[in-house]
Amino acid sequence: MRILITAGPTREYVDDVRFLSNASSGRMGYSIAEASIKRGHEVVLVTGPVELSPPSHVEVHRIETTGELRAKCLELFPLCDGVIATAAVCDYRPRERFVGKMTKTGRPIVLELVETSDVLAELGASKAHRWVVGFALESQDPRTNAMRKLRMKHCDCIVLNDTTAISSLDNHVEILSPDATTIAEFQGSKKAIAAELIEFVESSIALQHDC
User: Cα(152)–Cα(6) distance, rounded to whole angstroms?
Assistant: First the structure.
């Protein structure tokens, strides 16, 4: 299979040096890329800025903003069999970006934020014969929020984890189906979970799409 994997955070710039982002390390996505290569798949990795080196034999596309992520994924997805979307997309961006570097004035400032594009929802809506695996990092009412994301983004399944996964070497994930059934559960190092997840995708998700 040829698999599109998104990983790491996106950044939304306030001015030329400051940005909104999140604490994603990219480890889960990079581990999935490595596990996919070991299973003999082709991997296209679209990655935000992280302090990791991509695995060998991976086609790497580096992005910063959510807009760049969207453009690159819309370009690459039609050439792939499916997508595993682990990227931690910044949900909001400043309505206007200040040109140059803002300086202190001694007074409060107000930033007006607007929502960024829902990249995975766009991919899911256009998936046709391709499969879509989403990730949901939730801290409150996790299953309800994860299922809402699954349906909004037209995922074939969604991988639910919580905020303890951020910057950790380990993780605990629950894979939910469109009917809200737990169809798999993995715990351990992110590398071990990545290997189990790829085998699960091969046997349970891609198989349904004749990949």
Answer: 18
Q: For residues 75-99, b (16+ Cβ closer than 10 Å) or e, as one string?
A: ebbeebbbbbbbbbbbeebbeeeee
Sign, Cα dihedral of 62, 65, 71, 77 = positive
Cite the beta strand spans of 35-130 per DSSP E: 42-47, 59-62, 82-85, 92-94, 113-115
> What integer is the mean pLDDT of 125-139?
92
Looking at the structure of the chain, the number of domains it has is 1
Whole-angstrom Cα distance, residue 120 to residue 87?
10
- Establish if 104 belongs to a structural domain: no
β-pairing, 182-189 vs 59-62, is unpaired
Q: What contacts 24+ positions apart, CB below 8 Å, involve 107-114?
A: 111/14, 113/20
Range(s) of the domain holding residue 16: 2-97+110-209
Is 65 strand, coil or helix? Answer: coil
Q: What is the pLDDT of residues 180-209, one digit of tens each?
A: 999 999 999 999 999 999 999 999 888 777
With H, G, I as helix, E, B as strand and everything else as coil, classify residue 10.
coil
Name the DSSP letter for residue 33.
H
Look at residue 105 and tell me if it is in a domain: no
Q: Are 176 and 204 in contact (CB under 8 A)?
A: no
- Which residue in this structure is represented by tokens 């469109």? 178
